[in-house]
Design brief:
The protein contains no helices and 25 strands. With 331 residues, the protein is an all-beta fold. It has two domains: 164 residues, Thrombin, subunit H, CATH 2.40.10; 144 residues, no CATH class.
Length: 331
């Protein structure tokens, strides 16, 4: 469901920030960063942005989970896709590329950012909406494509509708990653064959692949690579953008599950057309709780990310002790 982990605060201004290079990452007392707000959203032009990407010309592209001038099922709007263009000393100019609305064939609440292909098309996810029966409950979801035209407009196409029964996944909340062949990979927070239920959705989540059509006018094909199971070792509820390595293996994070019950880092190993899951780490609490920010590699193949709570800090928010951690996993 939308904002099941991060509360939405009405009346709070969300801004994109520019930071100067930092000093020592280990000494928080000597960081010399300078903040500059490059754009403020006001709600009608977006609310709750979910990250940005650059194009070759230095323009920024992103989504806002809510906001827009279109009507929706709540007062915040169904979300939109935007572009920010640098405008010299004046700042940045926003252009709304697409606004989602309460239409039975449209998605609502885009989440997880965007990804470009080599032709300049944008791809993204909506966590809700889509097929009939999926438009108002915040579940189901879609995968969409935005194609630029010569006249500056963008044409939207839905590549995949997640089914209302959730067997092919439900409620995608993280971004997509694309391989060199144009295949898209992502996760859904709910759905699949697992037996999870938290009162908001059913299923433990999936990892999916969308393959482009093999002929002009054909359809994209979805393949479920893995369905998470509610057992003693497997993770549940993936909600971070996947990481693809040079060998075609996928890495991701589960919000919960694992042997410690506090989430996992997993790998899906690709071999001869089959995918096998490996749990790389299960969080116990002292080393973090609820990972979900997405993983990055360093030059040695080590993985880094964060947990939203846990660790040894003195926080206690929402029943989860600890202020969060930054962690490293070595192969």
């Amino acid at each position: 469901m939308l904002s099941y982990k991060v509360p939405v605060l009405a009346g709070v201004a969300f801004a994109l920030l520019a930071l100067a290079p930092l000093g020592s990452a280990r000494d928080i007392n000597t960081i010399g960063a300078t903040e500059k707000v490059v754009f403020n959203f006001d709600g009608s032009d977006g609310f709750e942005p979910t990250g940005v990407i650059f194009d070759a010309a230095g323009n920024l592209y992103g989504t806002t989970t809510m906001g827009s001038k279109k009507g929706c099922y709540d007062q915040f709007g169904c979300g939109l896709v935007f572009e920010l263009m640098p405008n010299g000393k004046v700042g940045w100019t926003e252009k709304i590329l697409y606004e989602f609305g309460p239409d039975s064939n449209d998605g609502i609440y885009p989440n997880g950012g965007l990804v470009f292909d080599t032709a300049g098309n944008l791809y993204g996810l909506t966590s809700g909406g889509g097929q009939q029966g999926c438009t108002s409950d915040g579940l189901c979801g879609t995968v969409f494509k935005l194609t630029p035209t010569a006249h500056g407009r963008w044409i939207k196409q839905v590549l995949h509708y997640f089914d209302a029964n959730g067997k092919d996944g439900n409620d995608p909340t993280a971004g997509l990653v694309m391989d060199a062949h144009g295949n898209l990979y992502g996760t859904t927070y709910y759905g699949g064959t697992g037996s999870c239920s938290d009162g908001n959705g059913v299923g433990c989540g999936t990892v999916f692949e969308l393959s482009p059509p093999t002929r002009k006018g054909g359809k994209w094909t979805e393949t479920i690579l893995y369905s998470f199971q509610n057992n003693a070792t497997d993770g549940i509820w993936p909600d971070a953008t996947l990481l693809l390595d040079a060998s075609g293996n996928l890495y991701g994070e589960n919000w919960g599950g694992g042997s410690g019950g506090n989430g996992t880092v997993f790998e899906l190993v690709r071999k001869k057309g089959t995918w096998t899951e490996r749990i790389l780490h299960s969080f116990s609490g002292k080393d973090g709780v609820n990972p979900g920010a997405g993983l990055v590699f360093d030059a040695d193949g080590d993985l880094y990310s964060t947990t939203s709570s846990g660790g040894t800090g003195g926080c206690s928010i929402g029943g989860y002790p600890g202020c969060g951690t930054v962690f490293k996993i070595r192969p």
